[in-house]
Amino acid sequence: MMHKTSDVEKPSKLLQDTNLDTVYFRSFSEIPNAKRLSDLVNAEEAFRNGTAGSFDSVRTMIPTIEARYKAVDALIKQSGVTQVVEFAAGRTTRGINNPSWNFIHTDQDDSALEQMREVSGTLSKGGCANVHFAKFDAVTGEGLAGVISLLENREVAVVHEGLMMYYPHEQQAKIALNAKRILGRFGGIYITPDVRTLEDPSFGRLYPQYANRTREQRKLIGRDYDFKFGTKEEAVAFFEGLGFRVERKKYGELIGRLESLHVIFPNRREAARVKAVIMELDALRMALK
């Protein structure tokens, strides 16, 4: 399917609002400050009034999003890098939760940045000196100089989650190349769990309502965001072609207990089936060649 650049490079308001759904879903986990943030930004109300569908249709997403956050955190910590840039960070507490990091919280939306500045002060009891906010568009690269100005002269981890699946491969390449520009100057690693393939395990067979919900949300937000690669090898080759060395790490290698899994799926057998799918998903850890 062909997409006009103007149709996909600037996220729609409805697409931006999916970030509040993610905040609500994280509130079921034990991620530090996740529940408090959800309450402060009224994420549950936004979910109930938004495009995500019924709670039943998103149950599998909730532990998946907890796992995604934890997988990224684990890879950062394994690297030993203590300077982090998060593209399209939206409403995350990652920087607040890791006060030893120099954390650059980026977003292209002014209102989300301002809200997180205010919320950060509340969550960290008066301010979090290690967290810096920068307006930056991860696709177009607008604001990159401002991001770089906030970085110290040492290695950096560039990360994002829940970003690339909304863009076709041409725009995915632009996001990756913006990460490459930062690593080219400072060194470090690039981490994302956003790259999906047709080979990935799916909840579709277990829960047909999940697939139905996805189709309906695509219609509501006005874009087809199922921009998957055909195979895992194809995905790796895509990033290698952009100048990265790529390593795939399964969630199961990176994380343990998922609190939200046991909250949402009290039946142990059902929880085990859902967990088996989640733990087979990949996060990519990349460095420059």
Description:
There is one protein chain. The protein is an alpha/beta fold and 289 residues long. It is 47% helix and 13% strand. The protein is built from 14 helices and 7 strands. Strand 4, helix 9 and strand 5 (188-192) form a beta-alpha-beta unit. Helix 2 (13-26) packs across helix 3 (34-40).
Structural key phrases:
7 strands, 13% strand, single chain, alpha/beta, 289 residues, seven-stranded mixed beta sheet, disordered N terminus, 14 helices
What percentage of the residues does DSSP assign to strands (E)?
Answer: 5-15%
H/E series, N to C? HHHHHEHEHEHEHEHHEHHHE
Q: How would you write the strand order of the largest sheet?
A: 3-2-1-4-5-7-6
Rg result: 18 Å
Which stretches are low in confidence, meaning pLDDT under 50 for 5 or more residues running? 1-6
Rounded mean pLDDT score: 89
The gross shape turns out to be globular
Number of strands: 7
For the termini, the CA-CA separation is 32 Å
Helical residue percent band: 40-55%
Structural class: alpha/beta
- Output the number of helix runs: 14
Largest sheet: 7 strands, mixed
